[in-house]
TrEMBL record, chains A, B:
GO molecular function: uroporphyrin-III C-methyltransferase activity
Protein name according to UniProt: Uroporphyrinogen-III C-methyltransferase
UniProt entry keywords in alphabetical sequence: Methyltransferase, S-adenosyl-L-methionine, Transferase
Residue intervals of the Siroheme biosynthesis protein Met8 C-terminal domain: 1-32
Basic and acidic residues bias spans: 246-255
SUPFAM superfamilies found in the cross-reference section: Tetrapyrrole methylase (SSF53790)
GO biological process assignments: methylation; siroheme biosynthetic process
Tetrapyrrole methylase domain segment(s): 59-301
Signal peptide: none
The organism of origin for this protein: Madurella mycetomatis
Region (Disordered): 241-274
InterPro entries, A to Z: 4pyrrol_Mease, 4pyrrol_Methylase_sf, 4pyrrole_Mease_sub1, 4pyrrole_Mease_sub2, CobA/CysG_C, Met8_C, Siro_Cobalamin_biosynth
A Pfam family the protein falls into: Sirohm_synth_C
Length: 364, 364
């Protein structure tokens, strides 16, 4: 019954509760070799479908749904949700966003589970292709922004290969890589503190560690897909890898090595990759903009220990750099601080609740 | 009459046409020393004002308006525009966004002109403070995202110093640094092409050149505030500065120098800053998401010449990295290509016009 657990995990309760026998039938039929009609998957053929005109081409709207809160959708994506003929959503599109889809609109949610991501992606793209060729407006709804680790570029390329490049519209979304810091009260660029922000991944291709970014004092770095290997990542940021050590030994004289040993390695500009000081402020931000948002504020020295002790609540990301303390002053003697809950998006003037600040404790 | 030219440049025609004698009176009165009532500027006291209750505290919503197109507002910011008691907008907030403001809502637009930015910022903050203390909901509307070069962090700090930190809500916006590449069909991260994106400024503090970011093959770099000094920027990216040359000479033996001369400098990992190859693809994107959007696609070798010949249409930014050619294949023998016009946000199904693709010519 692993599939049942996965369905329960990925689909919101409201959607599960609304499933009918016909839906189940359609989903089962959509799997290859189980009796699906020739011409493609049938799961999205719902009651609201219009009969397309002959020779009419539809279009694909590739849109980002933002980090979680439905009010963080752009107006353009919201309009697309309201008007699309079919919606093909990625697994991680937040429930609050899915709730905005009109009941008449057929929705497919990617069947992405570990080891199946590529196949699930192909399946959605084939469904989208069928829809466009049938003259429909297909909304490919992705989390965050479609071009920031969203495989959006691959989808554009796919439709071009099919001669349908002109039918694709791409809409940006609020990316969690920049909005999660914002909701944690961290301005990634702040005068006199940070003048640049690097968004990168903590996990490389095939799980291999990517080349760690060098330390730049005025840089804020946002690491996505990094929390499950936080200890390794911190080690790479704050010390040379074995490979680097070897390269350095080969390229430098003994005298230089001896000299280097006298000064902290991150103070040798231009020699090797500049290392991140262990006292660099950082923050782990999980489920940004959702009611169960959590922020752990600490430094590179303690972040792995903090995550080990506090546990992990994916999805989350790591922000590193002095900007983490631009609006936050850590309490002396504490290795880390945990802030639970999301404050600061409820604009409902009538309710008067949940207004709060940007959710920052411990300020100066 | 320089002030008149500036007003005409910064304010949309619709707003200018709607100005009444009373508005002019109020604006003039709001300047210090010209008869403003004690208790602060009067320019935002419009017809829609409610009388605040005694002791009631309002709030400040610090929100980003996105890159230009009004449909790129988030739903949260749109709601804030519809419900705020007062709106204090930055100069560059797009006209299409200002048009969404209800007529009853008093609006101030920052009087930022060269040499006056800090004073204009202070003025807006003081107006906001008066509004909050009077129990009003004040919307500080900024272009793009308030925490990406938007001075948003400084504004949060300002209200905290006044003991009003809890009254501040920060809303993210679509930043042009990531959406301009998207609208030019450039996915800043694309599998097998780029796994990281760096947003930085091409102009440092007090006009000084910032330290140029080193070359990383899998990195996309977005340079803001760079086009007016494009030649200098390209020189810094593709060759060592005099200072670096000197530092290198002091730190290396003549033998090493001689060896280094044999291999291209960007192929020497770990020695000095890695330089950007001149054939690195890049794109200049101006007025992203606006009807007069323009994209110039070229390489670092030709970008300065291209801008010189084609002219500059601010605001614009420079994107550098292999991602610029992820969905675009340059025409052989051409040094650069210019694409005019914005395609790809009109979701009005009825009109059926302006749908287009992501605006990419010359694709493979």
């Amino acid at each position: 019954m692993r599939w049942l657990a996965q369905v329960c995990e990925y689909w919101p309760l409201k959607r599960l509760a609304a499933i009918t026998d016909a839906d189940v039938e359609a989903v089962l039929k959509s799997y290859p070799g189980t009796g699906a009609a020739a011409g493609g998957p049938a799961s999205w053929r719902g009651a609201g479908d219009k009969l397309p005109g002959h020779g009419q081409t539809g279009r694909v709207i590739l849109a980002g749904s933002g980090p979680g809160h439905p009010d963080l959708l752009t107006r353009a994506t919201y309009k697309a949700i309201q008007t699309a003929d079919i919606i093909l959503a990625d697994k991680l599109v937040p429930a609050g966003v899915l709730d905005l889809i009109p009941r008449r609109t057929p929705v497919s949610i990617a069947r992405k589970f570990p080891g199946n991501a590529d196949r699930a992606q192909e399946e959605l793209l084939e469904q989208a292709l069928d829809g466009v060729r049938a003259g429909k407006t297909v909304l490919r709804l992705k989390q965050g922004d479609p071009f920031i680790y969203g495989r959006g570029g691959e989808e554009v390329a796919f439709f071009r290969e099919k001669g349908l490049g002109d039918c694709v519209v791409v809409l940006p979304g609020i990316t969690s890589s920049l909005s999660a810091p914002l909701f944690a009260g961290i301005p990634p660029t702040q005068r006199d503190v940070a003048d640049q922000v690097l968004v990168c991944t903590g996990t490389g291709k095939k799980g291999k560690a990517p080349q760690p970014p060098e330390y730049v004092e005025s840089r804020t770095v946002v690491f996505l897909m990094a929390l499950h290997r936080i200890e390794g990542l911190v080690a790479e940021l704050t010390a040379y890898t074995d490979e680097e050590e070897q390269r350095a030994r080969e390229g430098r004289s003994q005298t230089e090595e001896a000299e280097a040993a006298q000064t902290p390695s991150h103070q040798q500009p231009g020699k090797r990759r500049t290392l991140w000081p262990l006292n660099t402020p950082c923050a782990v931000i999980e489920r940004a903009s959702c009611p169960d948002q959590r922020v752990i504020r600490t430094t590179l020295r303690f972040v792995a220990e903090a995550i080990e002790q506090e546990g992990s609540r994916p999805p989350g990301l790591l922000v590193v750099g002095r900007a983490c303390e631009a609006l936050y002053t850590p309490e002396k003697g504490r290795s880390w601080a945990v802030e639970d809950g999301f404050k600061g998006l409820d604009l409902d003037v009538e309710s008067g609740v949940g207004i709060g600040g940007v959710g920052i404790a411990g300020m100066a």
